[in-house]
Amino acid sequence: MSENWTERHIPDQHGRVAIVTGANTGLGFETARMLAARGAAVVLAVRDIEKGKQAAARITGDVTVQALDLTSLDSVRSAADDLRAAHPRIDLLINNAGVMYTPKQTTADGFELQFGTNHLGHFALTGLLLDRLLPVPGSRVVTVSSTGHRIRAALHFDDLQWERSYSRVAAYGQSKLANLMFTYELQRRLEAHGTTAAVAAHPGVSNTELARNTPAALRVPVTWLAPLLTQKAEMGALPTLRAATDPAVRGGQYYGPGNRGEIRGYPKQVSSSADSHDQAAQRRLWTVSEELTGVTFPV
After folding, report:
1. pLDDT tens digit string along 30-40?
2. How many degrees, rounded to 5, is the angle at CA 82 between CA 97 and CA 39?
3. Using CA atoms, how far apart are residues 39 and 96, in angstroms rounded to an integer?
4. Is residue 115, in this structure, part of any structural domain at all?
5. Is residue 298 assigned to a domain?
């Protein structure tokens, strides 16, 4: 496609069910808003129900709110039970929610907060909902990663929870690398089924609340440079929307902003780091994630 891919390229979504995590603000809100505008029945899966209801009131279309706290596996299981009961079929699962550069904290289950929220919570949710997607032709699991998957990023299998030391930047990089490795391994497992695709996306540098935990040393330059480097949330959501809806997208692809450095611009297919394509590490991450969450996949 030679022209820039924009909101108007989103195909008609009537009859489709889309679940978007972290959809009360920022990228998730814009993703949900645009899907609803094209006719999808959209579920805002959010930690704060009241904020979710306020967001839903700002969206025109078929929108419901589901409680989901990705920092608690009990909450993930409860949300999955609710979603399975309400939706015999799911067309789109968009794993959008995330935290970035948080001070050292753990989830309710004792996982490092960024790894637990960004990867393990979404891993568990996907596994618990996947049988609702598998029978649906054209269904997709879209997981939002980041250019941060290249920055001080590695899977520290000897200390995944950062118990010995902690770097908020490196921990974020690990979680975003895990998002990509999960997508690629999931796609390999889905290929035999031929219906559901796993795709990844990243928003470039978008002006959202995600950066609120930026380390103090970076906060001033980030604040000054933000107007020059960042793009609005509605632009940052386009790679996710393209990954979710463009008929030309194939499983295992990765979409991000098309300008130099993938900081901003219209979405196109992009590449990810060599580490993200390490199949042995992908399989190991999958096994460890099943062990940590207690969730196994039907593929």
Report:
1. 999 999 999 99
2. 65
3. 20
4. yes
5. no
Average pLDDT along the chain = 93
Does 219 score more than 60 pLDDT? Answer: no
Least confident of 47-56, 178-187, 204-213, 284-293: 204-213
Q: Which of 101, 172, 254, 255 is catalytic?
A: 172
Q: Is 61 within the bounds of a domain?
A: yes
Cα 122 → chain centroid: 8
Model confidence at 1, pLDDT cuts 50, 70, 90, reads very low
Query: Would residue 67 count as lying in a domain?
Result: yes
Using a cut of 0.85, tell me whether the model's pTM lies above it. yes
Domain that holds residue 212: 12-293
172 is catalytic: yes
Rounded average pLDDT over 55-61: 98
